Amino acid sequence: MLLFTTFCFCITTTHAQWINQNAGFTNRTLGFYEISIVDKDIVWAICYDGIGGLMGPAHVLDFIRTTDGGTTWMPGQVGTDSSLAFSNICALSATEAWVAMHKFDLSTGGGVFHTTDGGTTWTQSGVGTIFDNNSFPNFVWFKDPMNGIAGGDANGGYFEIHTTTDGGATWTRTPQANVPPFVTNGGAGWFDGFCVLGDTVWFGTNRGQMYKSTDFGQTWSVSTVSPQGYTVYEIAFLDDGQHGLTHVRSGSATMLFATADGGATWTQRTTHPKWKQSKLTAVPGTNRFVSTSVTANRGSAYSIDNGLTWVEIDNATPKAACRFLDSTTGWAGGYFNDVPGVAPISGGIYKWDPTTLRVVNINPAKAATVYPNPATDKITISFADNRSGHSLRFYNAVGKLVKEVDGVTSGEIDIAALPGGLYFIRSASDAGVRLKFIKQ
Length: 440
Hints:
By secondary structure, the chain is mainly beta. The protein has two domains: 17-352, Methylamine Dehydrogenase, Chain H, CATH 2.130.10; 357-439, Immunoglobulin-like (Sandwich), CATH 2.60.40.10. It contains no helices and 39 strands. The protein has strands at 5-7, 9-13, 18-22, 30-37, 43-49, 62-66, 74-77, 84-91, 97-103, 111-115, 123-124, 137-142, 148-154, 159-164, 172-173, 194-197, 200-204, 209-213, 221-224, 231-237, 244-250, 253-259, 267-268, 279-282, 289-293, 299-303, 311-314, 322-326, 329-333, 335-336, 348-352, 357-362, 368-371, 378-383, 390-396, 401-408, 411-414, 421-427, 434-439. The strands form ten sheets. It has a five-stranded antiparallel beta sheet with strand order 7-6-5-4-30, with no helix packed on it.
């Protein structure tokens, strides 16, 4: 289906591509650690201590969810056991979700928990068969309501991987013979340090290794990301399963590594000034990665060359968790606070809006259309007044001039050379003409 973009306005672009939404909290100070998107309307997110960070000191069991695309967010809590903290969340519907939880003090214990009533009640799954008092759960993931996988640190001398084919009624641990041994003192991962694409699963370790399974956890291989043995954190892969990025950390230093062969080999990227160092995700259906940060280099940025260069989207507000459903639907999590004496931060959850424009005045006589949208190699522009000779200027999402075409009449324009992303078109010869489109 062709999507037509028509502007009957005189408009100017803004650089902000995020809409601040109200997370629904009325007190406390909370950050958003992970987001799970079911579809364009249903999204869940889990929280952490917005003052002390992931390690506390506040015990946080809060989550939020929306069933209307973020117009309304509903807060809730996962049980009452304050000895637990979130590892990750995997949502399946408006009512069903899974969370992996580790011990708040980073000791062993924890498990995976399941809700089918929108988070009102949560039940621990597989007690006695999946994770025990010697476990450290790092993630749980369901590719559909029946088939799931959960992983944790080494337990009994090898990494703990469990799978289910009956919605968590029973779990089976992957045999030690199918899981390669880890390097000395390297039997730990990072909570939420994993990525899943179909049946392919990756997770990282605290000694610079990356484990990979192509059969949803039944057998595994291992490769080296960081020769220095630093900890592998966030992992993101494009849809091709070949091009991926990962964050590697040593103390306060964060490094970016890239692969183009599915994780068999990794290359460290030179630090780019616009790269954000807190979280990392891929945008499904595109060649784009998005990085976010809550630090001094806060905000968000994107890369379309596998992490070589980055384009800043914004640096207005801190953002940590970030996930996309597709090129036009995504959310990022910042902070909500009500700290006395500190400027309040309302909302705290941000919805991606790739078409944010500010209307200045209406001018119906200047209508124009561009299609298809999104586009690949060519776009067609049609001017309502049929006048020829438009001088068009193409700008990327951050306002940089990237293409000029003079003498344009209604018809096709070649955009094959433009990188994927959001673009704005202005007519230098007619100030009333403004258009936008997305290049896939």
